[in-house]
Design brief:
alpha+beta; 2 domains; binds 2-oxoglutaric acid; three-stranded antiparallel beta sheet; Jelly Rolls; 7 helices; seven-stranded antiparallel beta sheet
Length: 318
């Protein structure tokens, strides 16, 4: 089976996602959209730097085994080779418009079901010299299948960066399904030279986590894509940012989608600015978890209906 390349055929992309763990849809964003998104992102990134609020890290400050995703820059770090601009939902209407994009909806629905929720929405500006990241999965938090005769480990004790190295080669061994997937919307070309995401094709079906100490140079490929593409990977896929060896910035937006029963990375109910919430459509709010799923998840003790509204919450009566 040939490895995924950029395509505009969504059936093809969907098959790539299931077979290889990732797909690349080309021409999803128009030139005008790319320019609008990129200029808003650069403006926001510059303002966050100016205000001392930027999340930036250089080659030495990344610790993939730790609890923290990013390290706040200070004068002692190696410099702003990679800037992470987080929680884009609050940072411009251009960003919000992408949440309901039909291409994203189609592919997230194929993997997670029609009631998927947005788990995170961030961006990454990888500048020349930006570091290569250790391969990891985005579903590291998922408790693993266990043997019946083993007492279970507390599910919440799992930590990012744990290495599962016990593949017994048993083809019938059960693995956990994907309950999350991550996209990169490319605002610049992604090339091997500028640090395009490295992935190990097919690793989503391994039932394993990668060894953070290995670089997997023989197994990993770079997902190359033109600007304006939508790359989507299964959260079990081994992947990581490549090193930027070019003289230009690699710019991308990341939307993470979850099945509706799992906790989202961003706590939207707290993070969403009141003004953004007031102006959000019911469709957008539903994707942010303001909708009860299955009559069960996300309830707030309101009278009726599945859209969450504080106005209907029932308090102490009598
Ligand atoms: O930027 C990329 O290419 C991948 C980023 C990623 O996997 C991460 O930051 O966890």
């Amino acid at each position: 089976m040939p490895l995924p390349g950029p395509t505009t055929d969504l059936d093809h992309a969907e098959n790539d996602l299931f077979d290889h763990g990732y797909c690349i849809v080309a021409d999803v964003l128009s030139q005008t959209e790319i320019v609008g998104l990129r200029s808003r992102l650069e403006e926001q990134a510059a303002a966050e730097r100016e205000a001392g609020l930027a999340y930036e890290f250089g080659e030495l400050s990344r610790d993939t085994g730790g609890e923290n995703f990013t390290v706040r820059a200070d004068a002692s770090t190696m410099g702003p080779k990679h800037q992470f601009v987080g929680v884009l939902i609050n940072k411009g209407a251009v960003f919000r418009d992408l949440v309901l994009h039909p291409v994203a909806d189609r592919l997230a629905t194929a993997l997670l079901g029609a009631d998927w929720v947005l788990s995170a929405y961030d961006s990454s500006l990888v500048r020349p010299g930006g570091p290569q990241q250790a391969l990891h999965t985005d579903q590291w938090w998922m408790p693993r299948p266990q043997r019946r005769d083993q007492r279970q480990r507390p599910a919440g004790d799992i930590r990012r960066g744990e290495f599962y190295g016990d593949d017994d080669g048993e083809p019938d061994r059960l693995i956990t399904p994907a309950v999350s997937c991550t996209s990169a919307w490319t605002l610049s070309p992604f090339t091997a030279e500028n640090g395009a995401t490295r992935v190990v094709p097919g690793s989503h079906l391994s039932g394993q986590e990668p060894d953070p100490a290995r670089d997997y140079d023989n197994e990993a490929v770079s997902i190359e894509a033109p600007a304006g593409s939508f790359i989507l990977w299964d959260a079990r896929l081994w992947h990581g940012m490549g090193k930027n060896r070019s003289d230009a910035e690699r710019a991308g937006l990341y939307t993470v989608y979850n099945a509706p029963m799992s906790r989202t990375q961003i706590n939207w109910q707290v993070a969403l600015l009141p003004q953004v919430r007031a102006e959000a459509s019911p469709e957008l709010l539903a994707r942010l978890g303001f909708k009860v799923w299955g009559g069960y998840y996300g309830r707030v003790g309101a009278a009726d209906g599945d859209m969450i509204s504080e106005a209907e919450v029932i308090g102490e009566l009598g």
